[in-house]
Write a structure and sequence with these properties.
2 copies of one chain form a homodimer. Chain A has 2 domains: 2-146 and 287-337, Alpha-Beta Complex (Quinone Oxidoreductase, Chain A, domain 1); 151-283, NAD(P)-binding Rossmann-like Domain (Rossmann fold), CATH 3.40.50. Chain A is of the alpha/beta class and 338 residues long. In chain A, 30% of the residues lie in helices and 26% in strands. In chain A, the strands form 4 sheets. In chain A, strands 3, 5, 6, 9, 10, 18 and 19 form a 7-stranded mixed β-sheet that branches. Chain A has a 6-stranded parallel β-sheet with strand order 13-12-11-14-15-17, with helices on both faces. The first copy, chain A, has helices spanning 42-45, 93-96, 122-125, 138-144, 147-157, 173-184, 197-206, 216-226, 242-250, 271-277, 288-300, 319-327, and strands spanning 2-8, 11-16, 28-36, 55-56, 61-68, 80-82, 86-87, 107-108, 116-119, 127-128, 165-169, 189-193, 210-212, 232-237, 252-260, 268-270, 280-283, 312-315, 334-337.
């Protein structure tokens, strides 16, 4: 079967590899219908994270169950399923408290940019859709497996809701879908920080009420101006850099909430500033699995179209071009048809 | 009148100064009944914070209203009052959201280690007691003006409550009163981290169910052992150093809550660690004023005795000895009788 393998920064190839097998009785193997390239895949692609050995890429996936291990009871071959990038047993105390992405048996998915992929912890990870989806639903369902769920967590962690002014720092797929999530959660005002015309347009379509093009201190100043000098109630951080984290904390009013979902790289938060900012800070790998039933329902009913973040669709064989397009910011997010 | 003045690290004197006056129509002047030395007063005393000019010390206070400005309506001369170290107007949006310690008109109190003190924002800051308190209630009411309210905020920020295992890092007055607060808030299990016998005893009296003497990584390991490997639901950080902040974050389970109320000094939190820890982090200068009515009621009814943290009582004239005793850790907290 085909699999996308990263050999070194900038070096992504589609190779023929042996098909994955059931290794544990709790595993499933699924045949991918669609997969995609994640913003976090760009960290090693750009050499910011090391690539020591060739690695099978991909952790976002939708597809049809091909085979299940002997202990799997909640999904069966032939079902169309959506899963999370973080697998979870669904039964441990951390899962039950709403944090499956920190499950005590968590294994992060890999190798989903392929024809077939093995999914550990299948029972607690995979959610079957109500039926076999039409092709036009695939991008939406695929988005649910990571970027939508991550943006959703950002909005939940920032306590977006009725009466709240929400600011979103970052206009990648996650940031844009945090706008969509804030809208679904009932936020009164949603300020998207973006200087890219196309992304601004999508943010407005997803529910943004205001666009702020300034960044850093000027961006913070602008948010303060828009919020009677106080800062936003809720700020979603969807980048993961020092600048964006500070921008998020400083854009939040005392007692407000920062939801940070950009995977942090070289970020150091000053304790004194955090102390006197008096914000709530919460984030991390999104507990996507906890949201999947609701997200799938919203998609199935056609109430949300998160798949619009895929502004490039290519066959799996052209994965290298998908990476290049995202690296060069020619595409927000690239879907790979399998 | 007498006032405690710090001239340089280690140099604290009681001096005769001019009595404070009403400067703004929203001010009150109170005659102190008791005041005390704060752990945070030790930062400049130890030279960790600079002392550029001689400074009037003291921000914890209870006493009788002497005079009020023309716009003050909620307290009148002759009333016994308790206030917060952070003054607040009580009407701004931040106050109304429960964060008076970040009031847009906040002024931090100073000069309360004295016979008389000026309190800005009197209407939004001072809370009268139901009557003139007996002398034996003074330590309890004085504790409410800072250390009790701060420990309480730590426990609230850590979401201490029924069914929760709460860990308290720091066995100073604030940490000990965070134990008391966690108990009042209904926590199931309260683990106090302390290696001082006398403080351990007080922690147990205040409601601690377990004592952990280990610190740093060993302390984290011990908390994990006591919580099925997961970490505590709620952790209060009441020190403010890099080591104690890390100990707090690492002792908390994914999805759990860290309430940090130790004034941070030279703390830098690694974003990646915070991200993957998946904890909630909230803290800062405690919104004591928001809790005062409840705290005064609990004290008035004799349900809590937070004043037990004062293990040294001296007349105001001996303020220098009070500072020395706390600096040398001979006293948890020193009350000054005025």
């Amino acid at each position: 079967m085909r699999s996308v393998v990263m050999h070194a920064p900038g070096d992504v190839r589609v190779e023929q590899l042996e098909a994955p097998k059931i290794l544990a009785p709790t595993d499933a193997v699924i045949r991918l219908s669609a997969t995609c390239v994640c913003g976090s895949d760009l960290w090693p692609y750009r050499g910011i994270e090391p690539v020591k050995n060739p690695v099978r890429m991909g952790h976002e996936y939708v597809g049809v169950v091909e085979e299940v291990g002997s202990e799997v009871t909640s999904v069966r071959p032939g079902q169309f399923v959506v899963g999370s990038f973080a697998t979870s047993d669904g039964t441990c105390e951390i899962c039950r408290s709403g944090y499956p992405s920190s499950c005590v048996h968590r294994e992060f998915m890999s190798g989903a940019q392929a024809d077939l992929a093995r999914v550990p912890n299948a029972d607690g990870t995979l959610v079957p859709t109500p039926g076999m989806p039409d092709a036009d639903l695939l991008p939406d369902l695929l988005a649910a497996s990571d970027v939508l769920g991550t943006g959703w967590f950002g909005a939940v962690a920032a306590q977006a809701g009725p009466g709240k002014t929400v600011t979103v720092v970052g206009d990648g797929a996650v940031g844009l879908l945090a706008v969509l999530a804030a809208k679904q959660l009932g936020a009164e005002r949603i300020i998207a920080m973006s200087r890219h015309e196309q992304r601004q347009k999508l943010a407005l379509d997803f529910g943004a009420t205001d666009i702020v093009t300034e960044r850093g201190d000027a961006g913070v100043e602008r948010i303060k101006e828009l919020t009677a000098g106080l800062g936003a109630h809720s700020v979603v951080e969807a980048v993961g850099t020092q600048e964006s984290m500070l921008q998020a904390v400083r854009s939040t009013r005392p007692g407000g909430h920062v939801g940070f979902v950009g995977v942090n790289h070289d970020v150091a938060l000053d304790g004194t500033e955090l102390f006197f900012s008096q914000v709530h800070l919460h984030g991390g790998p999104a507990p996507v699995r906890a949201y999947l039933p609701r997200l799938i329902e919203l998609i199935w009913r056609g109430e949300i179209n998160p798949g619009r973040v895929f502004d490039l669709q290519l066959p799996l064989d052209q994965a290298a071009e998908a990476y290049r397009a995202m690296d060069e910011r020619r595409a927000v997010k690239a879907l790979l048809r399998v």
